């Protein structure tokens, strides 16, 4: 009995050794580095046979994990598996593995750092800041962790803390490209565009192939209407990575502003082929199709945005608008109903639905929507304009006249003399 137990013990040890060694070998081939940049994180489109095999090994590891947690190889292996999931944009699975690994060995700086990056990608900045703080508690001079911490603080509009953190990072390494990038973004957030450009150029000087800085610089050049500069720097970014979706998207934005819509569409098509899960990119593509009067293609793009994120209100509204252009008012109303259910206090959505109800001659319901829109945006005269129109149709001349008076005053205040004159004409007619 003793000999049998000993044989089973040594057999299990051999099996564990084989399992850990096999996982290690596959990770070396599939994910050789632990350094992760958010810009290169992309969902897996096609799962290779070797990646599927690693997935099976991971399940086997999980089943035996309780019995082998004391093995000193396990925490680092779990962290490397988590890193792979992070690179594949499987943030939830990655975070679970980081937590298990750190529960065994909480001294892994890279695990805290990369879990912070995962939370940044999920827009969970409070959790990201906590993870990055844990990394810095172990290694207070970790410039990478400081740069990401400043980035998360910038996202939460903790501008003072962000600036302090990034200055600390640059004091430790004045040529750190990501720290210089965040410093540029900080000044961009303050509206100091030229200062932001200076810092971004320093980031590019520190690393000419650091395309996050190239993309950010292209974004600012686009915002400041320096279109030729934007095209030049975005082309440099695309020379580094032809499939950088946001460089492609900003390039599309530039060509939209230049009124070269076919060229813009080319870049948006390339962007969504890479980042197919970003609803904002599909909306940009849909907007160009709409401008080119390709309404069916526009609707298809907006539907793709909805599929990517069913709570993306703008996509529901825009597809509703397209349905109106396609003379499908009932479907348009369904889209606007969904949009308003998602954002009951959205004045623009309420106004758009009011217009559809107006076209369907459902005047009382339209009036209620224009009232709702005005209650959210009391300085928007167009809500009152249509409110007055509905009141006229519903034969409430006194209320209509008072509404025209307020609308006329608001139009006059914003300098819209044509609409103000129309309001006065309608009051006289009443």
Protein architecture, described:
With 430 residues, this protein is mostly helical. Among the domains are: 1-131, Serine Threonine Protein Phosphatase 5, Tetratricopeptide repeat; 141-207, Tetratricopeptide repeat domain (Serine Threonine Protein Phosphatase 5, Tetratricopeptide repeat, Alpha Horseshoe), CATH 1.25.40.10; 344-430, Tetratricopeptide repeat domain (Serine Threonine Protein Phosphatase 5, Tetratricopeptide repeat), CATH 1.25.40. It contains 23 helices and no strands. It has helices at 2-30, 49-68, 74-87, 91-104, 109-121, 125-138, 143-155, 159-172, 177-189, 193-206, 211-223, 227-240, 245-257, 261-274, 279-291, 295-308, 313-325, 329-342, 347-359, 363-376, 381-393, 397-413, 417-429. The chain starts with a helix and ends with a helix.
**Which fold name is given in CATH as the topology of the domain at 1-131?**
Serine Threonine Protein Phosphatase 5, Tetratricopeptide repeat
Order of helices and strands: HHHHHHHHHHHHHHHHHHHHHHH
Instruction: Work out the number of β strands.
Output: 0
Mean pLDDT: 91
What composes the largest sheet? none
The helicity comes to: over 70%
CATH level-1 class of the domain at 1-131: Mainly Alpha
């Amino acid at each position: 009995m003793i000999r049998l137990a000993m044989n089973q013990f040594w057999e299990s040890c051999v099996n564990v050794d084989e399992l850990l060694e096999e996982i290690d070998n596959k990770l070396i081939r599939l994910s050789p580095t632990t350094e992760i940049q958010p810009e290169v994180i992309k969902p897996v489109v096609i799962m290779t046979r070797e990646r599927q095999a690693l997935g099976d090994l991971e399940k086997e590891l999980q089943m035996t994990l309780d019995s082998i947690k004391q093995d000193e190889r396990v925490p680092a292996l779990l962290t490397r598996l988590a890193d792979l999931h992070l690179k594949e944009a499987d943030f939830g699975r990655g975070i679970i593995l980081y937590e298990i690994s750190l529960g065994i060995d909480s001294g892994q700086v890279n695990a805290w750092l990369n879990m912070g990056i995962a939370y940044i990608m999920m827009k969970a900045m409070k959790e990201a800041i906590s993870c990055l703080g844990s990394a810095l508690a172990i290694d207070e001079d970790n410039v990478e962790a400081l740069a990401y911490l400043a980035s998360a603080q910038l996202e939460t509009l903790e501008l003072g803390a962000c600036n302090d953190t990034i200055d600390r990072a640059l004091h430790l390494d004045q040529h750190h490209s990501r720290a210089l990038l965040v410093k540029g973004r900080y000044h961009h957030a303050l509206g100091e565009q030229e200062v932001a450009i200076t810092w971004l150029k320093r980031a590019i000087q520190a690393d000419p192939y650091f395309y996050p800085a190239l993309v950010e610089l292209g974004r600012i050049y686009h915002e400041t209407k320096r279109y030729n500069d934007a095209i030049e720097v975005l082309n440099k970014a695309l020379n580094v990575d032809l499939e950088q979706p946001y460089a492609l998207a900003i390039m599309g934005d530039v060509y939209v502003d230049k009124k070269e819509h076919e060229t813009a569409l080319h870049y948006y098509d390339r962007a969504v082929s890479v980042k197919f899960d970003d609803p904002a990119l599909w909306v940009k593509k849909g907007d160009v199709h709409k401008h080119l009067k390709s309404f069916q293609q526009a609707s298809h793009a907006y539907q793709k945005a909805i599929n990517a994120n069913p709570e993306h209100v703008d996509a529901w509204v825009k597809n509703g608008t397209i349905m109106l252009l396609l003379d499908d008012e009932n479907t348009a109303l369904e889209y606007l109903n969904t949009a308003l259910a998602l954002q009951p206090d959205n004045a623009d959505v309420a106004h758009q639905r009011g217009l559809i109800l107006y076209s369907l001659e459902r005047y009382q319901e339209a009036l209620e929507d224009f009232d709702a829109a005005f209650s959210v945006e009391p300085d928007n005269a167009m809500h009152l304009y249509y409110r007055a129109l509905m009141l006229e149709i519903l034969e409430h001349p006194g209320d209509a006249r008072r509404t025209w008076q307020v609308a006329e005053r608001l139009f006059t205040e914003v300098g819209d003399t044509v609409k103000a004159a129309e309001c006065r004409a309608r009051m006289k007619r009443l």
